[in-house]
Amino acid sequence: MTTEKTIERLSLYRRLLTDLLARGEQTVFSHELASKTGVTSSQVRRDMMAIGCTGSPSRGYFIADLLENIAKILDAQTPQYAALVGIGNLGRAILAFFQGRRPKLIIRAAFDRDPGLADRIIHGCRCHPDSQLDAIIQKENIQIGIIAVPAREAQNVALKMVTAGIKGILNFAPIPLSLTSGIYVENIDLTMSLEKVAYFTRQNNVQGKESDQ
Amino acid sequence: MTTEKTIERLSLYRRLLTDLLARGEQTVFSHELASKTGVTSSQVRRDMMAIGCTGSPSRGYFIADLLENIAKILDAQTPQYAALVGIGNLGRAILAFFQGRRPKLIIRAAFDRDPGLADRIIHGCRCHPDSQLDAIIQKENIQIGIIAVPAREAQNVALKMVTAGIKGILNFAPIPLSLTSGIYVENIDLTMSLEKVAYFTRQNNVQGKESDQ
DNA sequence: GCCTGTGAAGCTATTCACAGCT
DNA sequence: AGCTGTGAATAGCTTCACAGGC
Fold first, then answer.
1. Which DSSP helix (H) or strand (E) runs through B139?
2. Nucleotide nearest to A56 (CA to C1')
């Protein structure tokens, strides 16, 4: 099975490979991809194996082939839709990030408590008042939720999402959500990440721990 | 030694524990903390062991004791300063998140290419033009950098940070930075995270993989 | 009886090391 | 000579399971 860590690396490889292809490269060796992404070349070869790609000792891997196989794993056949809740600075940043990036993964609706935002279009995504969350998620067949509201509202929003039929959540609120199992939750916790950097920066100063990637 | 994963959980525990303490709780059992954070109770006990906390079978752990020991690990003795580069939506969201959250971890300066922002104060943090990056990082003894600029500028900003003396970086740009070793880099890659959620949401639908935390 | 503390076991992820190919 | 593909080894992380204490 394709594990969580592998999926993360595939997403990373894809960006690098897309770039290489755009520059006219046709093939790539495992050690090249490795040094650009900060993993080892064995790791790259293992990952290529996992997605059923095969290279040749003389040329390495065909970039187009890799991209095709990565897409087969990462992209849905039919488009997947996501809904964002919380159109503050963070929400807008997220919309900007994804705008038209992946044809098979689209943020189709955004919600906010502030009714003043209703019907505005931000980075190509239509805004709605909170109250329509349930109806629109169901009507538009949205399966992914993105939570970008303050901590105290997050649990509540998550429950509403699940009720509306959402199956996976990307949560930016710095609290663990408690939901019925069967819902995939990915947490991005900015506070935690900064504390982590602060910690390892100190260790660095003291004892010279190596950089990652 | 205290590993990366442990540090992440400690940050999480701390938030939960702060909350519990504020509600008047004095003690907590490993399984309570476990269910609130989505880890197992063995894991909690292991982590408590790692930070030198000890509980009693009848009462569990003293919350105040845990918080003190967690702070001993996560917080610096003297304040640590961070600098943010890129005051767009993402940058502002980050500033809002951290404003006064941790007395020992302060975003002391923000930089942007847009000179129109110079000398404004956003969420308590003073903005500066790009050109002063080097001087201010050195003068203010800033050791942590936060990169919230578009992908194409990130590598360049990172190099400038390192030249100015920064030792750890929190990178939001969706490309791996290549830096001299000895600099700790933590990447937060929004595109990757959303692709990951999309992937596991699909798997969920197909075969019922369990939710994490 | 229900908890903590922890050695031992089990899992997962990564790296080693080398046979085989070109 | 330098690369891929991969079994075997290693390292890292989590859970099991149970002794010991309240």
1. helix B133-139
2. D4
Q: How many CB pairs under 8 A join A and B?
A: 213
H/E segment holding residue A144:
strand A144-147
Statement: residue A136 has pLDDT above 70: yes
Mind listing the pLDDT tens digit for each residue in A23-82? 999 999 999 999 999 999 999 999 999 999 999 999 999 999 999 999 999 999 999 999
A3 CA, C11 C1': Å apart: 13
pLDDT tens track for B60-78: 999 999 999 999 999 999 9
List protein-proximal bases of chain D (any atom < 7 A from a CB): 2-7, 12-17, 20-22
Answer yes or no: is B69 CB < 7 A from strand C. no
**Average pLDDT of chain A?**
93
From start to end of chain B, where are the E strands? 27-28, 61-62, 80-85, 105-112, 121-122, 125-129, 144-147, 168-171, 184-187
Closest partner residue to B211 among A11, A74, A183, by Cβ?
Answer: A183
Side chain identity, residue B86: G
Rounded (10°) angle between helices B30-37 and B41-50: 110
pLDDT bracket for residue B211 (50, 70, 90): very low
For B10-47, how does the pLDDT look when each residue is reduced to its tens digit (9 = 90+)? 999 999 999 999 999 999 999 999 999 999 999 999 99
CA distance B145 to B154: 11
Interhelix angle A190-207/B63-74, rounded to 10 degrees, is: 60
Task: List pLDDT tens digits, range A163-206.
Answer: 999 999 999 999 999 998 789 999 999 999 999 999 999 987 65
Q: Is the CB of A43 under 7 A from strand D?
A: no
Beta strand pairing call for A121-122 and A125-129: antiparallel
Place of tokens 């495992």: A30
The first and second tokens of residue B141, run together, are 């003894």
Q: Provide, in whole angstroms, the distance separating residue B46's CA from nucleotide C8's C1'.
A: 14
Q: One-letter amino acid identity for A187?
A: N
CA distance A139 to A147: 19
The three state secondary structure string of A3-62 is CHHHHHHHHHHHHHHHHHHHCCCCEECHHHHHHHHCCCHHHHHHHHHHCCCCCECCCEEE
Tokens read off for A56: 């040749």
Contact call for residues A90 and B89 (beta carbons, < 8 A): yes
Per-residue flag: B212 CB under 7 A of strand D: no
Question: Which residue has 């594990």 as its token pair?
Answer: A3
